[in-house]
Amino acid sequence: MSELLATTGTIAAIATAVVPQQGSVGIVRVSGSLAMAIAQTLFYTPGKQVWESHRILYGNIRHPQTRQLVDEALLLIMKAPRSYTREDVVEFHCHGGIMAVQQVLQLCLENGARLAQPGEFTLRAFLNGRLDLTQAESIADLVGAKSPQAAQTALAGLQGKLAYPIRQLRAHCLDILAEIEARIDFEEDLPPLDDKHIISEIENIAAEISKLLATKDQGELLRTGLKVAIVGRPNVGKSSLLNAWSQSDRAIVTDLPGTTRDVVESQLVVGGIPVQVLDTAGIRETADQVEKIGVERSRRAANTADLVLFTIDAATGWTEDDQQIYAQVEHRPLILIINKIDLVEKSVIDTLKYPQNINKIVYTAAAQNQGIESLETAILEIVQAGKVAAADIDLAINQRQAAALTQAKIALTQVQATIAQKLPLDFWTIDLRGAIQALGEITGEEVTESVLDRIFSKFCIGK
Length: 463
Prior knowledge:
The structure is a single chain. This protein is α/β, with parallel strands linked by helices. The chain has helices spanning 35-42, 99-110, 120-127, 133-143, 148-158, 163-185, 195-213, 216-224, 238-246, 289-304, 320-329, 346-350, 372-385, 399-420, 425-443, 449-456; strands spanning 10-14, 25-31, 43-44, 55-62, 69-78, 89-95, 113-115, 226-232, 264-270, 273-279, 307-313, 334-339, 361-363. The chain has a 7-stranded mixed beta sheet. A 6-stranded mixed beta sheet has the order 9-10-8-11-12-13, sandwiched between helices. Strand 11, helix 11 and strand 12 form a beta-alpha-beta unit. Helix 6 (163-185) packs antiparallel against helix 7. The longest helix has 23 residues, at 163-185. The chain starts with 9 loop residues before the first strand and ends in a 7-residue tail after the last helix. The relative contact order is 0.12. Residues 250-263, 282-292 and 387-392 have low confidence and may be disordered.
């Protein structure tokens, strides 16, 4: 058994981010049979405070031998089964920073606890029936959410909105399996099996699985976000565009070409989607060694971006240099940004030439904060053209869940083929059991140690 699954004993960990001189409160969480004993050994309460479940006590944390004061703190008590892990849990709410929480954690370890493995608190919640596997994964998604929409989707999963339809599909498969096996065991006592009805039921289940699979790209977009690179010649207004879009002065803006020497990054949210915007150095041939490095990084950023915002100057139009840069990025999803439209007449803008295969164009005057809304609309249209909804979603599966659903769908397809070939009923049950197992892996009703190890190792230690 792996270290992660060695869930015996009492565990402890720091459950909050530790930032020197910045964190106002730090929490040390302890879960297991010794949690209360450790709390009673370390925590001293003035007056007649009652040590009972779901009560917060005030007091001091002291070294049990030397009685040296470690911190003035609060103690939260949650006795089993009314806790996150369904074990006895105590939390020491200390002053933030590094020293206080580290000292408290060390005292917990010296008095019977061991350091928790990554995700072990949530793993215990799963193993003790407090959460299913989809809810556990939703907790990780909620902690790492990069936008309000991502957080709402994670909360939907935590509330069981993904687990419920999966369980319904699995139960339906189990009903079909029971009906088939009944014919195998009691063939003479039951009417013949209705093949067409079974096929229809399996088709309905497969269709529901397809609907869930359609949310995979949507889920990945919400979890990882969209990487967008602003690309173009020097001095076409790329940095001004970033500043106007992010409503900040992240990038230096001057009239001198080559001002941006490296990739400047900003984090935004567009239509519920996290967007990482990269303002790249103007791409051109240069003898300046530092600028040359920046140009090379710009090329790499453009070629790894999910979307390229190819920016040109409305006054100079499409130039030979633009064509050379475009040749390097035309294979990427691309929006043409015609910037500085406030500096030219509309008649000039109407006559601008550019490659005919560019069909998504946005006009901006970044220095005047014009065109940003149109840019965001164009980005969402690009996303939706990829059949990925940008907002108003109830649930979204991850890669592991999608792989299991795909496996279930393949198994159901094989069941249909077996029926069509008029093979014996025993053969029908083989792939149907495979579909049931695959669906059970999603919620954790049927799951292997290696799967749990892979899922929970990605959690932070205190969760």
